[in-house]
Design a protein that fits this description.
Blueprint lengths: L2 E6 L3 H16 L7 E7 L3 E3 L13 E3 L1 H6 L3 E11 L4 E6 L4 E5 L2 E4 L3 E3 L7 H4 E2 L4 H13 L11 E5 L3 H18 L6 E6 L13 H10 L2 E5 L3 E5 L2 E4 L4 E3 L2 E4 L3 E3 L16 E2 L5 E2 L2 E6 L4 E2 L13 H20 L12 E5 L5 E5 L5 E5 H15 L7 H13 L3
Helix pairs in contact: 1-7, 1-9, 7-9
GO molecular function, one term: NADH dehydrogenase activity
Family: Belongs to the NADH dehydrogenase family.
InterPro entries: FAD/NAD-bd_sf, FAD/NAD-binding_dom, NDH-2
């Protein structure tokens, strides 16, 4: 009887989990009929989420059908409703609405994350985001439609809530994008509202001055130490009583792990991620591995943990898929590690910043040279490998073994 690995999710972690499991299966000379690998996701495509802040977000997908076929990975279109760890089965709803039960011998939960929106009045009705493809496409359509409205300060103003990585990349994209839509002479205004004491709070003392200077160069205003208390059709109200007239509010303040993690045993952090064992196994569920944005995993022995980023998701996925297959094939599982951490933050049309390390972060490249690196990351490095067996397996091996 064949053994079954089921992977929930076709994002960065799910894709690398599938390729890594298939690579080990191939290396050990095991037939795909004897060890099946099935990816469950709404569509056989990778949503290139790190690029959703850019122009034309509808195009930020990479098809996976040919890649899966080349590596003998099965695909099942649908959404997972429940995980029954005791029975070793998941229930899913297909794209046609039909319910199905899918058994597994090893399960990899790579279901990703979603944007978190607190119950702020008007946020659900008037806020936008780039947390997923549908939201990013809706924002893009909204921005394009601004050209049909009469000129006004509200039309020409974008407020970005959250001064972290996503908020900064969204905000620095906006001035040029608005002028393309509204006209080069339009007095556009972009404002970042950050509840904390500064923007780029996680970047540290060395990178932050460059980021702040770049924001000033682009004419982007920052309001720190204040949150949002409400939105309406014409603007946004802040905690301190101030109001900004705007037709466009983009929420970028917070993510949460997939709700499926609530069905897994073990401890979770404030983001909903499962605290996993060193080999990414879920404590109390020996046949389940959590990875990507659903897992909180130690990256080293210095107290650092994985983050919700494609950089960590790819490597986490590679370890999880390898370990799921190894567990079934009688091979030892491997402890996940990711000792290096780099950030390449986009800062508008002609600049970026590249840093290395956790704390303190060291600035290695800035300006146009860092922008070249960012473009290489966004357009090449994070995309799936070619739909060719050897290249795909090499990509999976490097995702697990090559450090930055």
């Amino acid at each position: 009887m064949s053994q079954k690995i089921v992977i929930i999710g076709a994002g960065f972690a799910g894709l690398l989990a599938a390729l890594s499991a298939a690579r080990l299966r191939n290396e050990k000379g095991v037939s795909p009929a004897d060890l099946t690998i099935t990816v469950v996701a709404p569509e056989p495509a990778l949503i290139v989420r790190p690029r959703l802040y850019e122009r034309d977000p509808a195009s930020m997908t990479a098809p996976l059908g040919e890649l899966f076929a080349a590596t003998d990975i099965d695909f099942r279109a649908g959404w997972v409703d429940t995980i029954d760890a005791g029975k070793g089965v998941i229930s899913l709803k297909g794209v046609d609405g039909a319910a199905e039960m899918l058994p597994y011998d090893r399960l990899v939960v790579a279901a990703g994350s979603h944007g978190f929106q607190p119950p702020i009045p008007g946020l659900a009705d008037f806020g936008h985001s780039v947390n997923d493809r549908a939201a990013a496409v809706a924002l893009d359509k909204h921005l394009q439609a601004l050209a049909d409205r009469p000129a006004s300060p509200a039309r020409d103003t974008v407020v970005v809530v959250g001064g972290g990585f996503t908020g900064i990349e969204v905000a620095t994209e906006m001035p040029d994008r608005l002028r393309e839509i509204l006209g080069q002479d339009t007095p556009v205004r972009v404002v970042i509202v950050e509840h904390g004491p500064c923007v780029a709070g996680d970047m540290g003392d060395e990178p932050r001055p460059y980021i702040e200077a770049r924001l000033r160069e682009l004419g982007i205003e920052t309001i720190v130490g204040s949150g949002v208390s409400g939105l309406d059709e014409g603007g946004v109200a802040l905690d301190d009583g101030a109001r900004i007239e705007t037709d466009t509010v983009i929420w970028s303040a917070g993510m949460r792990a997939s709700p499926l993690t609530a069905q897994l045993p073990g401890e979770r952090d404030t983001l909903g991620r499962v605290l996993v064992d060193p080999d990414l196994r879920v404590p109390g569920a020996p046949h389940i591995f959590a990875t990507g944005d659903t897992a909180k995993a130690a990256t080293d022995d210095k107290g650092n943990f994985s983050l919700m980023s494609c950089q960590h998701a790819r490597r986490l996925g590679a370890f999880a898929g390898h370990n799921a297959a190894a567990d079934l094939l009688g091979e030892p599982t491997l402890p996940y590690d990711q000792p290096s951490y780099v950030v390449c933050l986009d800062l508008g049309p002609d600049a970026a910043i590249f840093t290395r390390g956790w704390s303190p972060r060291t600035v290695e490249i800035t300006g146009p040279e860092a922008k070249k690196v960012k473009m290489e990351v966004n357009r090449v490095w994070i995309y799936p490998p070619a739909a060719e067996r050897a290249a795909a397996f090499q990509n999976a091996f490097e995702a697990r073994t090559v450090d930055f």
